[in-house]
Design a protein that fits this description.
CATH superfamily of the largest domain: NAD(P)-binding Rossmann-like Domain
Number of helices: 6
Number of strands: 8
CATH class of the largest domain: Alpha Beta
Strand order of the largest sheet: 5-6-4-3-7-8
Number of domains: 2
Radius of gyration: 24 Å
């Protein structure tokens, strides 16, 4: 799967650039030159790419009809994987929020004003949780309106009248939980998705 995604990126960039050196291609894609070389050789060997004129440096590559069909199949597979990942994320969030609701919680604050929060908001409401606010550590997000809620600094948590603080980030959840631990003398439950 990783190789297919890399090949897809190589094919897209080759089609954009056409006449490009492997070194420049590697730099644009953030890949090692050897990896780009392996992907190009594979694509040429399979008949998905062709070298237009091997006497000219850098080579000019062109996608073949078979290459365009292969790229379309890979894109379709990538879209399916992304959609499945999104469904799995929604199911995970719904399961965790239902567990929280089963504990008798009905008012929550979200900690993290990103994509996960935007996915979690309608799910929270669907399971009967009122979202009373959202906080985020990023000063660039503070003051913005996200999904109908003004993003506040974490210092505003006490004012938001919630029974639980739901950490709406997967990347920084442990770090946030660790920072909240010293102030955990309150009755607010800290919940990870």
């Amino acid at each position: 799967m990783v190789a297919e995604v890399a090949r897809l990126r190589v094919m897209d960039e080759v089609e954009r650039a056409g006449n490009i050196s492997q070194r420049a291609l590697a730099r644009r894609l953030g890949m090692a030159v050897g990896a780009v070389n392996r992907h190009l050789r594979f694509l040429i060997r399979q008949g998905y790419l062709q070298v237009v004129d091997s006497a000219v440096r850098p080579f000019a590559y062109r996608l073949t009809a078979a290459g365009r069909a292969y790229r379309q199949r890979m894109r379709h597979g990538e879209y399916e994987r992304l959609a499945e990942g999104y469904r799995e994320m929604e199911e995970r969030i719904a399961r965790r929020l239902k567990e929280l609701r089963a504990k008798g919680v009905d008012r929550v604050v979200f900690y993290g004003a990103g994509v996960v929060m935007e996915v979690a908001r309608p799910i929270a409401e669907a399971v009967g949780l009122a979202v009373t606010g959202v906080v985020d550590d990023d000063p660039g997000k503070q003051g913005e309106e996200r999904d109908g809620l003004r993003v506040l600094a974490p210092g505003a948590l006490k004012e938001l009248d919630a029974q639980a603080l739901v950490i709406t980030t997967f990347c920084h959840a442990r770090e946030i939980r660790r920072r909240l631990k010293p102030a955990s003398g309150s009755q607010v439950l800290v919940w990870e998705l």
